[in-house]
Write a structure and sequence with these properties.
Order of helices and strands: HHHHHHHHHHH
Structural class: mainly alpha
Radius of gyration: 27 Å
Number of strands: 0
CATH superfamily of the largest domain: Cytochrome c-like domain
Shape: globular
Helix content: 40-55%
CATH architecture of the largest domain: Orthogonal Bundle
Distance between the termini: 107 Å
Largest sheet: none
Number of helices: 11
Length: 241
Amino acid sequence: MKNCRQFVVAILGASLLCGCGSLPGKPAKDSEMLAPDQIMDFAVLYRENCAGCHGADGKGGAAIALADPVYLTIADDAAIRKVVTKGERGTAMSAFAQSAGGMLTDKQIEVLIKGIRSSLNKDGTIEPANPPSYLAKNPGDVARGAVVFQTYCESCHGPGGRGGQKGSSITNSAYLALVSDQTLRTVVITGRPELGAPDWSRNIPGKPMSEQEITDVVAWLTAQRAQNTQQINSGSNTTQP
């Protein structure tokens, strides 16, 4: 009987010794929580910072599709870095860099940029090649832009850009107040594939928009923003009887 008790005690002692590295309630090494500025996993960073506007798979949502090969062709790393770092003033795109009041470190922003190109962009090619430049090369002309809009855009967005059967209003004051001039140019070039809006080369089959036509129609759109602002300011200054 004594030998039996000694055997049981020996077994229990061995069990305790073997299990001392994983005591109940002790977290495993891989379960430790990282500080927000230590997260370097692209999937986590994208989900927490980008997916809400650009879509879970980068296919677009409230904001443009980051997985669009056209966008990734015209926007180089420096352009994307600038937007992520500083945001777009006056728009829904806020600054994400810690240096600009955001939550992300420079290293985390680099992880996002590399991941957007490698993880979201599965193709990386577009047709036709040689798309327009991301930034405008010359000033735009409002009068010419009105003609460009009628030629390429009115069939979907309606006269004056106030909306049509195939497209929403793009001269609405609320919309124009939420997008920058650069965003307008980007959308004209890339379209909104997730919404069925064609890019610069497919508005009219066989007749892609030229570099200057894109610049001119953006100038016309920004002129509508200025006109809307003047009308709002004028209305707010009207004295009621």
